[in-house]
Amino acid sequence: MKTFLDWPVLRQLRGDDVLGRGSAVRSRRTEELTSRTTEADHVARSVCPYCAVGCGQKVFVKDGEVTQIEGDPDSPVSRGRLCPKGSASKNLVTSPLRQTKVRYRRPYGTEWEDLDLTTAMEMIADRVVRTRRDYWQEHDEQGRRVRRTMGIASLGGATLDNEENYLIKKLFTAMGAIQIENQARI
To answer: How are beta strands 102-104 and 65-71 bridged, if at all?
Structure first.
């Protein structure tokens, strides 16, 4: 049972913490709290997914679940700091609103349906191959050999890092696409 003797101001005046900046003002509940990072089974190092800066992150995991994401002080890019979006990136993987299934709406359809990943990947691959074949151009109007497709274009996002953008550029160039751009340049 609490009494007026438990009031922080009385603890402050009776104890060593006269300025009220330490133990005098802490409740029993506060003393019992522990950080989510101290209870982690392991820590994985990662990179923030939101922009191309590449800030380092420490991902704290307990029982296979992400419990906290913080800036990595060992990162030469961010030196332990994260922007507001990076600081909230835990929600990206733990939010109950996160889509975890492939959603598809057929042409002229009014409802979304769930597809399994294999079906969705095959649909994408079939469409890419068909579009490349249907719009392939071996020679231009002057008869010069161009070997390209005008039916496929790519607009990359700034959330991708340099390595991902490099691989996407190589993929689309190998497919014959020439309309390859990135949001970061626009």
So the answer is: unpaired
Give the tokens for residue 70.
């913080």
Task: Give the number of other CB atoms < 10 A from CB of residue 24.
Answer: 19
Domains contained in the chain, CATH given: 1-33 (no CATH), 42-94 (3.30.200.210), 135-185 (no CATH)
Look-up of token digits 């991708």 = 160
Residue 151 and residue 132 in contact, taking contact as beta carbons nearer than 8 Å: yes
Structure tokens at 121: 């990947």
For residue 185, give Cα distances in angstroms to 3, 168, 171, 180: 65, 15, 19, 11
C-alpha dist (Å) from residue 38 to 56, 90, 132, 141: 19, 17, 53, 67
Question: What's the predicted TM-score (pTM) here?
Answer: 0.60
- Give 64-82 pLDDT, tens digit per residue: 889 999 999 999 999 999 9
Q: How many residues does the chain have?
A: 186
Q: What is residue 99's predicted lDDT score, i.e. its pLDDT?
A: 86
Burial class (CB in 10 A: 0-12, 13-18, 19+), 37: middle
Beta-carbon count within 10 A of 44 CB: 12
**What is the DSSP track for 50-102?**
SSTT--EEEEEEETTEEEEEEE-TT-TTTTT---HHHHTTHHHHH-TT---SE
